[in-house]
Amino acid sequence: MKKLILFAMTLCGIVFSLNALAAQEITAQEAVEKGYKRIGTIHTTAKATSPMDAKAILSQRADEKGGNYYVIIAGREHGRFSATAEVYE
Questions:
Q1: What's the angle, vertex CA 31, arms to CA 28 and CA 36, rounded to 5?
Q2: Which CATH number fits domain 2-88: 1.10.10.10, 3.30.1660.10, 3.40.630.40, 3.60.150.10?
Q3: To which H or E segment does residue 6 belong?
Q4: Model's pTM, two decimal places?
Q5: Which secondary structure element, helix H or strand E, spans residue 71, and what is its range?
Q6: Which of 17, 41, 44, 76 is 20 to 30 Å from the Cα of 86, by its Cα?
Q7: Residues of the signal sequence (predicted)?
């Protein structure tokens, strides 16, 4: 029983630490005020079925591009959701 509890606690710690490493959405004003460097643009495909799915895809793509933050600059709903964002480090 103790091993099961220890395993569950370890798994929770890993999940929470991975979320801390994901790129975060910020506002354009924050990017300017804090002097973050723009490193590119990313977009979602029509795979996202909700705004939260689109944000998760943007965060993942910002991570892949080496960014820590992203600013959503456009969004569209056409049966599915798509979005475009600028990536910052």
A1: 150
A2: 3.30.1660.10
A3: helix 2-21
A4: 0.74
A5: strand 69-77
A6: 17
A7: 1-22
